[in-house]
UniProtKB/TrEMBL annotation:
Keywords: Lyase, Magnesium, Metal-binding. It comes from Aeromicrobium tamlense. It comes from the Bacteria. Its cofactor is Mg(2+). This is CoA ester lyase. Substrate binds at residues 91, 156. Gene3D superfamilies: Phosphoenolpyruvate-binding domains. Mg(2+) binds at residues 156, 183. Coiled coil: none annotated. It holds the Pfam family HpcH_HpaI. The keyword Lyase applies. GO terms for biological process: oxaloacetate metabolic process.
Amino acid sequence: MRNPRAFLRPLAVGAPKPSSDVPFRPSRMIHFFDPSNEKMAAKVPDIAKKVDIILGNLEDAVKTEKKEAARQGLVDIAKATDFGDTQLWTRVNSLDSPWVLDDLITLVTEIGDKLDVIMVPKVEGAQDIHYVDRLLAQLEARAGLDRQILVHAILETAEGVANVEEIAAASPRMQGISLGPADLAASRRMKTTRVGGGHPGYIVRQDPTGEDLTVGRTTYQQDLWHYTIARMVDACAMNDILPFYGPFGDIKDVVACEDQFRNAFLLGCVGAWSLHPVQIDIAKKVFSPSAEDVAHAKRVVEAMGDGSGAVMIDGKMEDDASCKQCLVMLDLAKSLAE
Ligand code: GLV
Ligand code: MG
């Protein structure tokens, strides 16, 4: 049986060296397509060559009357396409929907040998993962599969966020978790109307410098998702699974998309969703360490020798802890280059 954690790279939290010998698979973007959309589906073989992960979406954004066509479309595409090193994922319908049982039965039976990961939306607690885990085990046995399909949870309800630690630890099948900002905003009754990203009203303002409080006070937009991403990253790091930022719906705003992806990368995420080809390159750029970061990390690691003690580089103190951060960066850069 394939090692179920074969997608995982240890995040090396607290460890000077990566400890895993399982193969690394780049996971910088999860590229969504609608298998019921024939035009989109026709482009899948080409797009699959450009992305780390391609995902056939069966849930939200697929119209109710297209649910069955999307499921069948994904089966047909998967059978007809050689995905090479690219991972094939699907997002099934939510566990309270009338479609999910057929999604799981059909996909595992028909294309279980090609499916790497099943993304489960609106996960609220460990019980949701246990249910999918048991069902997958039965279906894999019935289909005679000699590999385990992994599970990825979307964190997109208030209850899910409250239970994120138990979700991350719920099964050895857990591959990772994505933040779903759109559903989460609705679940929390946030007063936004967007799919991910910031909001011009969510700001901090500079203190006044004069009597007139309305004059010349710079505002800074804040990250609406900081708390949730940080919590999700901790839960994932604790369980050696991978955290992702989810969708950024304003396709034209490539600047804000890059900012949102970079905030997530800096906080520990390994990738984000791409909803349009223009977001593929943004994710590739953001979630691969920059040449400057790699060069700096090499300098620190070399100067630190056995990784203990402290050195001064460009006027800054570096020690065991910053050396560990540099090793995380170098490990990721090396893995992506292989
Ligand atoms: C993704 O599914 C989201 O709700 O943001
Ligand atoms: Mg959602």
